[in-house]
Every structure is written in structure tokens, then in C-alpha cells.
């Protein structure tokens, strides 16, 4: 037991994953900000989480399910949209947009059916699991079940907007 606890502490500090020898299941050690930062194709989302001031919330609490648009999804936005959102005068608008992609609770794909969920932003969106595909509003989950110490990340193919979903 003492060895397992020591290994868990070392893995947490190193940002790695270890296995609990008793259960032979992976122990989650990275928090959500570290998980999204390590995921290829989420550089824009990672930068926006920080700019919106949500990194500390995702670091210390949870669990949360993040529906993270990939970099290609952000490139599909109209020209100048990201630059506009990153202006200090639009910080609340950016925070609302990013918070709309975060659902309180841990929802790995096996737990997703068709149901409405409230987002951290306050609006609701529908997660739909049908015929092996997960949809979030009009967005498709293109990579599911990226596990974190305090939640799960699903990578989606478009940026969600509260007034359109």
C-alpha cells in the first residue's frame, strides 16, 4: 500500500499514469489543463482556456467533461473571430464560449446516451450517442475518452455557440 501511494505521488508530479496493482486499472494523474495541453490538435483550445481564466477552475475542481474543439474547428470560424475574442474587452464573451464546452460531471462515452446537460456557462446542450457516433449539438466527437485525473475530454470537430446549439 505504501509503495502504491509513493508511486502515485511520483506519477502525479511527473504527469504520468501508473497502474494500481490491486485493481490493475490505470490511475489518472493529470488534471484537465495538463491533459488538453498534451493532446495534439488542441493548441488553440488550450490557449483560449488560459486566456478565458478557466485554467485554475479546471485544475483544482471537477469532475468535468470537456468537449474540446480541435484546431481545425477554430480555423473554420470567420476570419478575425479569434483575434476579436482575445481582446481584453471580450474576456467575458470568451469565458462564456469556452465554458459552454464544459459540462460538470464525468461523462465517458459509455455513460453518454441521448440527454440534455447544463454547461458550466449555464446553457444546455444535447449529447447524443447513436449508432457508435457521439454528437454534441451539431458537432461530432472525433476522439473520445481522453481521460484526466478530474474528468474526461472528448474532441469535437466544430466550435459550439450557445445561441445556435
- The SSE string, one letter per element, is HEEHHHEHHHEEEEEE
Low-confidence segments, given as residue ranges, are 1-27
- Helical percent range? 25-40%
Using only C-alpha atoms, the radius of gyration works out to 17 Å
What's the average pLDDT?
84
Largest sheet: 7 strands, mixed
Label the structural class: alpha+beta
Shape annotation = globular
User: Spatial order of the strands in the main sheet?
Assistant: 4-3-9-8-7-6-5
What's the β-strand tally?
A: 9
Strand content: 25-35%
Distance between the termini: 47 Å
**Counting H and I runs of at least 4 residues, what is the number of helices?**
7
In short:
This protein has helices spanning 2-14, 32-38, 43-51, 55-60, 71-75, 81-85, 91-99, and strands spanning 18-20, 25-27, 64-69, 102-104, 115-118, 124-130, 133-136, 139-148, 151-156. With 165 residues, the chain is of the alpha+beta class.
Amino acid at each position: 500500500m505504501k509503495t502504491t501511494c509513493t508511486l502515485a505521488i511520483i506519477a502525479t508530479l511527473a504527469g504520468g499514469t501508473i497502474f494500481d496493482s490491486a485493481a490493475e486499472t490505470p490511475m489518472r494523474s493529470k488534471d484537465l489543463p495538463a491533459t488538453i495541453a498534451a493532446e495534439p490538435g488542441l493548441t488553440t483550445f488550450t490557449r483560449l482556456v488560459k486566456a478565458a481564466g478557466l485554467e485554475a477552475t479546471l485544475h483544482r475542481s471537477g469532475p468535468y467533461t470537456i468537449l474540446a474543439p480541435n484546431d481545425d474547428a477554430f480555423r473554420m470560424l470567420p476570419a478575425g473571430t479569434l483575434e476579436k475574442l482575445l481582446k481584453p474587452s471580450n474576456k467575458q464573451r470568451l469565458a462564456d464560449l469556452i465554458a459552454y464546452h464544459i459540462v460538470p460531471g464525468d461523462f465517458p462515452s459509455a455513460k453518454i446516451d441521448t440527454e440534455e446537460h447544463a454547461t458550466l456557462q449555464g446553457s444546455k446542450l444535447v449529447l447524443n450517442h447513436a449508432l457508435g457516433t457521439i454528437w454534441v449539438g451539431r458537432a461530432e466527437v472525433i476522439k473520445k475518452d481522453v481521460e484526466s485525473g478530474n474528468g474526461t475530454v472528448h474532441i469535437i470537430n466544430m466550435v459550439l455557440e450557445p445561441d445556435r446549439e
